[in-house]
Each structure stands twice: as C-alpha cells, then as structure tokens.
C-alpha cells in the first residue's frame, strides 16, 4: 500500500477519534476538574474572549508537538496524527465558534439539516448553566434523538 494512503487513513482516523476525545474531555474534564475554565462558556452573556478559550491551547499543544517530531523524522506517522488533530480543531472551531455561537458572523443562516441538528444538540447542552446534569457533550456528531427532533421541526 502506498504511504499516502496510510497517511490519509491515519489522518482520517485521528480526526474521527478526536470526536471521542472531545466528548470525553468535555464531559469529564471541562465539566469536572477544569470547570473553572469552562464555566464562563455557560453564562448567558459571555464576553468575546472567555477563559474557555484556553482549551484551544490545551488541544493545540499535542498537535504542535506531533508536527514537530513527525517532521523531524521525514514526515512520519506522528506528523499525520498531528494533522488529524489540527483538522478536527479547525472543524470544531468552524462549527462551535462560527456556526453555533456566531462569534464571527460568517455563516449566520442555514437551512442545512446537519447544521440545524448540531445547533439543537448544542442548545440542549447550554440549557444547563452549571456543571452537572449536562447532555450532548460531542460536537461534530449529534445523537439520533437530535436528528429526529430536527426532522419533526421541519415537518
């Protein structure tokens, strides 16, 4: 098998795996030990910059290190894991900060079923203003019940 196919599969697999990492981190770390950083994200009127934004640095660090060590060895598999993390971070930023929270007014209206479903799931997550009793901790993949709710609203 060609190296580019292997590297594509590593990058894609890492991207998909990162949704699980994001879910786990969000549920057990951001709503747990590091709630102090995430709390302001659940306030009704957050500022443009939040303590929650520090998670960008936390998640970017492994990607940067993997790029560095993967590039030193001739762009090996470590580099492509870092690329998968980076691509997930970009997707997360676009969906969470741009589409859902409208921190940047790039895509303000959409009738896309996927976008409506993700917005619905995230709205249900933010329904809870404290760290307990949360739901919908993922970002790019929504539970079936939110897809069903989106379809009912369109009918």
TrEMBL record:
It comes from the Bacteria. The keyword Transmembrane helix applies. It comes from Pedobacter caeni. Keywords: Carotenoid biosynthesis, Membrane, Oxidoreductase, Transmembrane, Transmembrane helix. InterPro entries: BETA-OHASE-like. One of its GO terms (molecular function) is beta-carotene 3-hydroxylase activity. GO terms for biological process: carotene metabolic process; xanthophyll biosynthetic process. The chain crosses the membrane at residues 6-25, 54-71, 77-95. This is Beta-carotene 3-hydroxylase. Belongs to the sterol desaturase family.
């Amino acid at each position: 098998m060609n190296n580019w196919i292997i590297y594509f599969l590593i990058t894609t697999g890492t991207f998909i795996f990162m949704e699980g990492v994001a879910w786990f981190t969000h549920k057990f770390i951001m709503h747990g030990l590091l709630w102090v950083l995430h709390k302001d994200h659940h306030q009704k009127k957050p500022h443009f910059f939040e303590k929650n934004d520090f998670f960008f640095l936390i998640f970017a660090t492994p990607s940067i290190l993997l790029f560095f060590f993967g590039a030193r060895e001739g762009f090996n598999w470590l580099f492509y894991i870092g690329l998968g993390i980076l691509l997930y971070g970009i997707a997360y930023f676009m969906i969470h900060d741009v589409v859902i929270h409208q921190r940047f007014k790039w895509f303000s209206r959409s009738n896309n079923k996927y976008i409506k479903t993700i917005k619905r799931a995230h709205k249900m997550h933010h329904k809870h203003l404290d760290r307990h009793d949360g739901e919908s901790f993922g970002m790019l993949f929504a539970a079936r019940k939110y897809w069903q709710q989106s379809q009912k609203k369109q009918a």
